[in-house]
Amino acid sequence: MDITQLGDRILAGDRRALARAITLVESRRDDHRAQAASLLDHLAGAGRQALRIGLSGTPGVGKSTFIESFGMMLIGQGLRVAVLAVDPSSARSGGSILGDKTRMERLSRERAAFIRPSPSQSHLGGVARRTREAVSLCEAAGFDVVLIETVGVGQSETVVAELSDLFLLLLAPAGGDELQGVKRGIMEMADLILVNKADGELKSTATRTCADYAGALRLLRKRVQDPPGFPKALTVSAVEEAGLDAAWAEMRALSDWRRENGHWTANRAEQARYWFGQEVRHALLARLETPRARAEMDRLSTAAAQGQLTPASAAEQMLGFLNEE
Ligand SMILES: Nc1nc2c(ncn2[C@@H]2O[C@H](COP(=O)(O)OP(=O)(O)OP(=O)(O)O)[C@@H](O)[C@H]2O)c(=O)[nH]1
Ligand SMILES: [Mg+2]
């Protein structure tokens, strides 16, 4: 494969080249990893930046419906929109976002949209690292907005926040005064809380839920990356396409402010630092997974189990072995 040519086609906005490049970065073959690295180096020079928006919410809250409506609205404004997913369970399910293409039917037919399911790897860390590279590829291909969806079930929000310029939390209207068991840590990551399904019978409940969250957000510690009034809570209806323009206006106001005040650059720099650490850790652990290293691990752990070596000196021998490899 000619990497320079592939890179040039991506820079020209060729969607098939983009899809092919994402397949390349998702591959675990060593020669593919090397090609992916040189492709990403080649493209980094173009310096294109999209607005990266992370979106999380529990199953059924309306993420796919929201992305469809919101994405269509952005396209209507002349923007190009890419949709990626971080779903560590996709190894099992075959990729929820793919099945969701039916729910994103209009968007998936748009030439200005690009939808890609989560890479099928069983580890969240692996999925996230490859998604991060897919985001860079979409930026190089000239997309203005990259939406990164994740099912909010725990850790995946944290890694999606590390991929995003803005992080949105989608919530459903809830009766009663409980705050839907949203973990404090997740609330603290949100730049915007969107209470979806603010339509029909659910409308008044959604308004109340939104007010509850607005109150809860005001109690959180102030973050340096926020202008006054942020983070905010708003109601939307993905089905009725209501509140989407207001939500977009808030996203733009926030991202503009962050750009003007240095937080955008600082955030991306901090993220680069984070992903560098992740890559190093991953690469070190991968060195334990070669057949020879596994055999050596087995041999030394048996020696430790039988008391021939202390655990510490067995570990030292293992590190010596890795250094020689
Ligand atoms: N009334 C109403 N229903 C909605 C709205 N948005 C989504 N729904 C409905 O909620 C259900 C779930 O919507 P999805 O968009 O599939 O939700 P999701 O968050 O992507 O779900 P998972 O992919 O399973 O995590 C569907 O039946 C939607 O029609 C909305 O704004 N109003
Ligand atoms: Mg969905």
Automatic annotation (TrEMBL):
This is Methylmalonyl Co-A mutase-associated GTPase MeaB. Belongs to the SIMIBI class G3E GTPase family. ArgK/MeaB subfamily. Its EC number is 3.6.5.-. The gene is meaB. GO terms for molecular function: hydrolase activity. It holds the Pfam family MeaB. It comes from Ruegeria alba. Keywords: Hydrolase. It is an enzyme of class 3 (hydrolase). InterPro entries: GTPase_ArgK, P-loop_NTPase.
